[in-house]
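Design a sequence for this backbone.
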């Protein structure tokens, strides 16, 4: 009797284990996949694989974005997946769009074309994160005041790029950037052991500057793309129409 009992118990256990399908086991594990590069023309612009958890916006329209223009009318349009955005001469236009959703830790990237901008014009291309006036992290690109240009030994085809935290703490780093080129601008937000943000600004994956902020992930940001006529970045009201092109924005 004992032999028959053990045989039955063993057979029941084996059948139970067999009934756990491979699919059930896989679904219990975390899934991390990537989209690999492809040789097809549609993927020719992609140079690295991207995680499927990335959020990428190609600008066919304002889907998941909204107008944020502060001064003037919304000066932008979409063509072939690119956002064309501009400000007019002899105005203080501030043309902007922003994401509808908010985000925290991760890497924010903007693919931006930086054109020739008017000499001395107070016009800025912006790629930035904003929660409120004391929680804002920026890329601002423009001709730059002559005093700043001289301090950086800027030549005729240089523009000035600012990497800035507006407050908490205030932090500003200036560098040169060549006009008439595409760039990938990125801001990475990571948390230190005190759960405060460490912000790192990069251009084409080269670090410009980094700073530790006094706040952490309870502060959430909207993502902005802009061209604004702002007095800090030039010597006179713009004499020309200034613009930028945004190919895509990514958060991952």
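Sequence:
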């Amino acid at each position: 009797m004992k032999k028959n009992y053990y045989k039955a118990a063993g057979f029941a256990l084996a059948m139970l284990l067999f009934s756990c399908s491979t699919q059930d086991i896989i679904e219990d594990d975390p899934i991390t996949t990537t989209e690999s590069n492809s040789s097809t023309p549609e993927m020719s612009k992609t140079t690295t694989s991207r995680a499927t958890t990335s959020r990428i916006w190609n600008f066919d329209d304002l889907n998941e974005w909204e107008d944020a223009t502060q001064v003037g009318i919304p000066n932008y349009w979409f063509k072939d997946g690119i956002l064309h955005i501009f400000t007019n001469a002899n105005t203080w236009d501030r043309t902007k769009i922003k994401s509808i959703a908010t985000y925290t830790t991760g890497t924010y990237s903007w693919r931006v074309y930086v054109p020739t901008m008017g000499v001395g014009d107070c016009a800025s291309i912006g790629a930035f994160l904003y929660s409120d006036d004391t929680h804002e992290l920026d890329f601002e690109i423009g001709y730059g005041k002559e005093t700043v240009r001289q301090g950086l030994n800027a030549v005729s085809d240089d523009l000035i790029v600012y990497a800035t935290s507006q407050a908490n703490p205030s932090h500003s780093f200036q560098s040169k950037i060549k006009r008439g080129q595409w760039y990938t601008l990125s801001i990475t937000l990571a948390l230190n052991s005190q759960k405060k943000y460490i912000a790192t600004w990069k251009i084409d994956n080269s670090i410009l500057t980094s700073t530790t902020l006094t706040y952490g992930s309870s502060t959430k940001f909207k993502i902005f793309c802009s061209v604004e006529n702002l007095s800090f970045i030039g010597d006179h009201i713009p004499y020309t129409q200034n613009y930028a092109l945004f190919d895509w924005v990514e958060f991952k």
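The two ends are 63 Å apart (CA to CA).
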